[in-house]
Amino acid sequence: MTGSIAAYKSAYLVRELIKHGAEVRVVMTEAASNFISELTLATLSRAPVVREMFPDAPSHGTWHIDLAGWGDVMIIAPASANTIAKIACGIADNALTALALALKCPLLVAPAMDVDMYGHPATQSNLELLEKRDVRIIPPESGELASGLQGEGRLADLPALIDEIGRAVGVDGDLAGKSVLVTAGPTFEDIDPVRFLGNRSTGKMGFALAAAAARRGARVTLVAGPSTIPTPAGVERIDVRSAEEMFAAVKAASSGLDVAIMAAAVADFTPVEVASHKLKKTPDTTETLTLHLQRTPDILSWLGKQNRPRVLIGFAVETKDMVDEARRKLREKNADLIVVNNPLEEGSAFAADTNKVTFVTESAVKDFERQSKARVADHILDFVVNKLAEIESSGTWV
Fold first, then answer.
1. Looking at 94, 199, 307, 386, which residue is catalytic?
2. Is the pTM value of this prediction over 0.70?
3. Would residue 199 show up in a list of annotated catalytic residues for this protein?
């Protein structure tokens, strides 16, 4: 662990790993000791903490070589920008970086820092370099940071860290071997070369679902509308722009699916014709402009009726009559679950990092408190796991 305000979360990580039956050795930088004590970590890990590059006991002179061969996986959580830069450059000037350079097992890096430090080109370049060397980067969460700013930089949630460690050491998750298709983000329907019809979706919910499914062992294909969110680890990403392109990508990826989760905010209508040049105002232009629109493909309905996976989940944004509308869509689309949210609810807007959702099935309605989209993703995947178990125990496909 390194010097970051998120260092206190490492205590929870150590405790959780011990609960899972792991043996844990903590190596920390001098800066990390300003945020959390060696005593706390030694107590939780039930083993001495390594902080000094040159321990007092002479017999421990090659401790980093011994420890490098002992571990099944090393995770740096939190990983500061400084330590990330050192590892990328092969610098070994403290206990942690020396161990990383001698390592024989997989290395996981979980960045945690302020949004501007994380987004700095040097940090991003260092992370890309580490990924090319097969270091697994666990992307940080977005949200409120210690500085008071909002953005990417928060240490990934504990379940994400545990899942990534499990994947690194070959522990199968509850979706191991399952094929999962997720759609995310908006679609942009072009009017002319510079204008389009779109919506406020950021793709955060769909990306959270893809990341969580991959952590749980699934083979994940993510069909993403326009979005700047980084591709989650272990996910195959297909970028599209329009509803028609998303439909084509889904059809191409739909064969033999176990699960499909349609989280994208797909446009319902698209212009009948796209102007080849920018539409301009001229002296003869009238006060109004009429756009002729046509329906876009109903991707969820096509999956439900033409090429249904074992489990099919749709999303609905509703501002009134939520349950009735969700039940109607459930039947019309032949889906197993409709996840409903109201963008007018506090903390549930498209750009928010949280969501307040309601699960609607044919027989039940379940409301959830407002929580992070990562947590919502895990609730959805819990439903998927239970539904798959139900299907497999009954010996039926759907």
1. 199
2. no
3. yes
